[in-house]
Design brief:
- The chain is of the alpha+beta class.
- It folds into two domains: about 110 residues, Aspartate Aminotransferase, domain 1 (Alpha-Beta Complex), CATH 3.90.1150; about 60 residues, no CATH class.
- About 45% of the residues lie in helices and about 15% in strands.
- A five-stranded antiparallel β-sheet has the order 1-2-3-4-5.
- A hairpin with a 2-residue loop joins strand 2 and strand 3.
- Helix 5 crosses helix 6 and helix 7 packs antiparallel against helix 8.
- The protein is elongated and about 60 Å long.
Amino acid sequence: MNPKVDFYFDKSQKWQSELKQLRKIALDCQLTEELKWGTPCYTLQGKNIVLIHEFKEYCAFLFFKGALLNDSDGILIQQSKNVQAARQVRFTNVDEILEKQAILKNYIYEAIEVEKAGLEVKFKKTKEFILADEFKNRLNELPELKKAFEALTPGRQRAYMLHFSSPKQSKTRESRVEKCIPQILDGKGLND
């Protein structure tokens, strides 16, 4: 147990018992407990294996390379269609965790083996993401915008592409593009 992480398990009002049980399971697997992104993260030789996090409706284990795991028990959840590597196992009560304790440990041990083997998730290339027509049009109209966008890191490009393509209505997509043009021209990412 890492004392720097203790606060996380004491602050939760809704999921305190569940989070403590998840912590016990992760520590039983001989992982190092660290605090990353303000949440408990369990690592092996500095490599992220699994983290614990909580949401309004559930708490969860998040396997960083969950897409590479053999989900024989069908418990891994892809948070959204845009999440490529990570997978969650969600819980809404401590009994679910206790019931799946052996399964969870097996998944953790498999995640450890994936990391030891050096396996990597093959990510979609930035070019494979959908470029909203509204943004395409603006890139064609404004060469300086196209140049600035192409100068962004692939991660920043993907963030914009997802942000622009997710609304159903063209009007909303156009509005998002217009709002972000100054940021892109300044070389900043969506959340900078």
